[in-house]
Design goal:
It is built from 1 helix and no strands. With 50 residues, it is mostly helical. It starts with a helix and ends in a 26-residue tail after the last helix.
């Protein structure tokens, strides 16, 4: 009995919610910036330079 309830919860709640979030919010902040020279982000090691 528990599995069909979990399926319903997933398909009726979580799937539409995730689709709405992806339509209206970009969590990775991807986008086109025509003024940018490049899109590379430099990382520094956590312990500092070696």
């Amino acid at each position: 009995m528990r599995n069909p309830l979990l399926w319903l919860l997933y398909y009726l709640v979580f799937s539409p919610l995730s689709l709405l979030i992806r339509l209206f919010h970009d969590p990775l902040h991807r986008g086109w910036d025509p003024t940018a020279a490049h899109y590379w982000h430099y990382r520094h090691p956590a312990g500092g330079p070696r």
